[in-house]
## 1
Amino acid sequence: MSSQEVVDTPLVRPEQIWAAIADVLDPELDTPLVRLGFVDRIEISGTEVGIFLKLPTFWCAPNFAYLMAADLAERARTVPGVSSVQVQLLDHCAGEAISAAVNNGLSFAAAFPDEVTTDSDLQELRHTFLKKGFLRRQDLLLRRLLQAGLSGEVLRTRTLEDLSWDEATERACLCLPGATLQLAALGKSARAYVERGKALGLLRAGGPLFVDEQGEPIPAGDLQSFLRRLRSVRLSLLFNTAMCSALFRTRYQHASAETAHNEEGENPL
C-alpha cells in the first residue's frame, strides 16, 4: 500500500457503521430501521460519525423516537476507532430536543420531565414491545410446525433443546420422539425466536419451547386459544408496519424503504 493510499484510507468506514446498526429496531414495528429505510444517511469525518434519522410523520411518538436515536448512537459507538457519534432526528416535532438529549447523554426522563418521571417507564415500554415481537416469531414457528402435521400436544411438550438450526442451509430442526423434523427456510427465524426468548428470560434451559408472554407453558388444550392471541399480535404488527411504511414513502418520495413483512409476516429479525 502506498503512502497516498494510507492517507486516503478513512479511519472509520461507512460500511462498519451500517453493519453495527443493521439490527437496531423500530420498537413499535419490531423491524430494523435500516430495512425500513428510516436511516437517511451516514456521514463520517475521520473518527466522528453522523447518523441522520427520518420517521414516517412529524408527530411520531417522542418516546419511541428517542429509543431509536439512542439505540443507533449506542451501536455506532461500539465500532472500533469511533470517537464520537451524533444522531440527528430530522423533520420531527421534537427532533432538536431528542437529538440534543441523545448526543449529550441525557436520558429521556431528564430531557422530557413532563412526559415521564423515570426512565423505567420507557424501558417497560420497550420490554412490552419486545415481548410482542417474541410472540410474533412464535406464531410463525408454531404455524409452520402445525402445517407440517404436528399435533398441539407434541408441540406443547417440546423443550428448548429440541429446536436447532443451520443458517448455512436455512433449515430448522425439531427433535421429536424417535425422529427429527427438518423445516426448510426457517433457520434464521428459529434462531431469532430463541435469541429473543432467551434475552427476555422467557425461554430457559430445560424449559418448554413454547411459552406465553410471562414465560409460562401453554396449558394442555389451550393451544388454539393461544394461537388466536398470537394471530392478533401478528396482524397488529403487520398493520402498523404497512401503515408506517406507506406514510414514509408518501412523505419521502425518494425513500427506499423495503416492504418489511410478506403476507405471512415471516420477518426473521
Note: Residues 38 and 55 are 6 Å apart (CA to CA).
## 2
Amino acid sequence: MAEKIQEIMPFEFRQCISIEKATGKKARNIRELKEMISTVSDECIFHHTYQYFLKGHILEYTSDFAHWAGESLEESSLSERLSNIDPYDFREISDLRNEIVRVIDEYLAKFPEPRDVMPGDEFHFNETVTLIFPLGIRARNLAEFLTAMRYINTASIYYHFYEARIRLGGGIDDFSRWIEDVFGKKKLAARIRAIDPFMHTLDAIKNHIIEEIEEEVRKDMEVIDRCLTSM
C-alpha cells in the first residue's frame, strides 16, 4: 500500500505572470490593423490572442482584435468573424496570424473603405514576457486537489486550463489530464474538458471545476462508507 501511494504523481500548481511591453505600433482602422498584424512579432500575436483570456475578457470575444473591432470600431460583423477564430486550434502562431489576416482581407473585399476610430481609441500593439513559477502547492489526491483549487488564483487557472491547451493540444488541460492519468477517472476528466473556455470567466471556470471535484469526492466517500458499513 505504501509503495502504491509513492507511485502517485502529485499535481503541482503553477501560475504565470505577464510583463507587458508596448511596441509603439498602433492602428486607426481595419486596414492598418491588418498591416500591423502581418508584421508584428509572434509574441505580440500571442499576447493579443491566447492571453486575451488572462485579462478578464468579455465573453463574446476571443481576442483583443475582435474586442477592438466590436467595441471601438463598432464593426459587429467583423468582430463576430474574428471571434469565431479559436486560437487554440492553431499550434503555430504563423497559422493563427494567417487566419486572422485572411478574415480581415475577406471583410475588406466587401467594405474597402474602413473608417477610423475616434482619437484615443486606436489599437495599441503590445508584447509580453511571461514568467511561469510553482506556487509550492501539491495535491496527491482529489481531496487535497479540491482544497488547493479553493485557494489558488485565476493566474493559475489560466496556466493550467488555457495555456495547457497550447502545450498538450486536443482541447486537453492540465487538470483533466492529471485526473485521468493518475486516477483513471475518465468521466470526471471529460466533464472538466467539456467546460467551454470561451463561455466562462476564469472565476467561473474555477467554480465549475470545484463543483465537479466536490461531487466526485462526495461519491467516493459514499462508496467508502458503504464498504465500512458492510464489514
Note: The mean pLDDT is 90.
## 3
Amino acid sequence: MIEKALKGSPRYFGALLAFLALMGIGGGFYLIQLNNGLMITGLSRDVSWGFYIAQFTYMVGVAASAVMLVLPYYFHHYKAYSKMIIMGEFLAIAAVIMCLGFIVIDIGQPQRMLNVLINSTPRSVLFWDMVVLNGYLVLNVVIGWTSLMAYWKRVTPPAWVKPLVYLSIIWAFSIHTVTAFLYAGLPGRHFWLTAILAARFLSSAFCSGPSILLLMTLLVGKLTKFDPGKEAVKTLSTTITYAMCVNVFFFFLELFTAFYSNMPGHMAPIEFLFNGFQGSTYMTPFMWTASFLAIGSLILLIPPRWRENRDMLVPALIMLVIGTWLDKGMGLIAAGFTPNPFERVTEYLPTGPEMMIALMIYATGGFVLTVLWKIALEVRAEVEGSV
C-alpha cells in the first residue's frame, strides 16, 4: 500500500513540499538551539516548562481522542464511524509523533532522552509517560495498518487485532492520565495540584481532538469526494458538545473550590489568568478570548438544529479548538508557574525561534498525517470504486 503515497495530484505534492519547507525552516532554528541551548527560548529559572511542553500536553489529548471513535465502533458496533475510524487512528499516530518531537526539543540535547532509559524506574512518572506514549504509537500503527491492509484485500482483519483494539482503548485513557500526573505530582504548583486535573485533561481532549478530526475530514471532503457520512458527523458533533460541557463544568468546579474555600495558593493563579497578578496582565487577553470562544462554541453547538447545520458547525468547532488551545496550550503552563515560590511573577512568552521550532514539529505531524490519509483514501477509492 505504501506505493500509493508516491503518486498523487500536484496539490498533494504541493502540500508535502510546504510541510517540508516548514520543517526545514524550523530545523534551522533547532540547529541554533542545539548550538546555543535553551537560552534562545523564553524559559528561565522560574519557568522551566513552556511552549514545547504546552503543545505536548495538547497533542497528547488529540492522540487520546481517537478513543471517541474506537470505543463506539468496536465496543458498540456503531458502523456509522466505519469511514472515519481509520482517519482517527492515523491522526493519533501523527499526534503521538508530534508529542515525542515536543519532548525531544524541550530537553535541549536529544541524547538526554537516554537518561529515561538508563535511569528507568517504575517510581518515575516520566518513565511511565515514555512507556504509554510509545506503546500507544505502536498499538495504533499495528491496528491501523493491519485493519487497512485487510480492508484493501477485502478480508476480515486477523483475530489478534481485536484484543489490541481493546487494549488501545484503555491505553488512550492512560496516556493523558499519566500526563496529568506529571503536573499534579508537583506539590509546589497550586494550579496543577488538583485531583480533578486528569479528568479535566480528558474532557478537554475528548472535545478538542474530535473537533480537529471532524474539521479535517470536512476539509478533505471539500477537496476530494470523501464523505464521512451524515450520521457520523451528527454523532461525533454531539459527543463533542457533551465533552465540552463537561470540560467547562470541571473548570467551574475548580473556581468554586478555590474561591469558596478562599485558598490563596489556588486563587492566585486563576486571578493571574483572568485579572492579572501584581500588575502582570499579559495572559488576561488570551484567557478571556479563550473563555468567550468556549462559551460561543457551546451556544452554537448545544441547539441540535444549529449543530446539524454545517455552516454553523464549522465555526463552532474552530472556536472550540482555538479556545481549548489557548486554555491548555498557553494558560495551563503560565498559571502553573505563577506565582513562583517567592510569591513573584516571572513572565513567560515563547520567543520567535521557539515558535518556529514548534512549527517544525507540527509540520512533521502534518506531513505524516497527509501521507497516511492519502493512503487510506486511495485504498477506500480502490475498494469502493469511488471517493
Note: The chain has a mean pLDDT of 89.
